[in-house]
TrEMBL record:
Pfam families: Cu-oxidase (PF00394)
Lineage: Eukaryota, Viridiplantae, Streptophyta, Embryophyta, Tracheophyta
Protein name per the record: Plastocyanin-like domain-containing protein
MF GO annotations: oxidoreductase activity
Domain of life where this protein originates: Eukaryota
Organism: Acer negundo (Box elder)
InterPro entries on file: Cu-oxidase_2nd, Cu-oxidase_fam, Cupredoxin
Domain Plastocyanin-like residue range list: 6-106
Length: 166
């Protein structure tokens, strides 16, 4: 591996926590995403808070947003961020390119040499259904006594739509 000169670089300060809103703008593809040597804390999806959980990777569907907290708790260096398609369909062509960017720690005026071969994150294999389901199965509503969600249980009106009666 080597550092590309025209790759996107996200510069962060060590010891801080950043809120990242990840958006999958792919039209048809579910994506796996991860940052090398960093865990992400999922705190929301599609503009709704979720019960926070830590994860090494996320699975994000087309058009979906996922809010994660990134703790910059690693030694100052460069770390690859990467995403690849999840595709479980057999015999269907898909773009199996892995897209990358760099997370780079701000080292200020220090003379620290940054890694010439940044670590690459673990991403599940393109057809790893278990990994995809494992991630999405962890998403939980924030609902509890402090954050109640009221769902009507007494239905008093019937709607007729076309020939379907509800």
């Amino acid at each position: 591996m080597y550092i590309f000169t025209d790759i996107y670089k996200l510069t962060v300060d060590q010891g801080k926590t950043y809120l990242l809103r990840l958006i999958n703008t792919a039209v048809e593809d579910i994506l796996f995403f991860a940052i090398a040597n960093h865990q992400l804390t999922v705190v929301g999806t599609n503009s709704s808070y979720t019960k926070p959980f830590k994860t090494d990777y996320i699975t994000i569907s087309p058009g979906q947003t996922i809010d994660v907290l990134l703790e910059t708790n690693q030694p100052p260096s460069h770390y690859y961020m990467a995403a690849r398609v999840y595709s479980s369909a057999k015999g269907v062509d898909f773009d199996n390119t892995t897209t990358m960017a760099l997370l780079q720690y701000n080292i200020g005026k220090k003379s620290t040499t940054l890694a010439s071969n940044p670590p690459f994150p673990y991403l599940p294999f393109y057809n790893d259904t278990k990994a995809s389901v494992n991630f999405t199965g962890k998403l939980r509503s924030l609902a509890n006594e402090d954050h109640q969600i009221h769902v009507p249980v007494n239905i008093s009106s019937k709607l007729i739509l076309g020939s379907l009666q509800i």
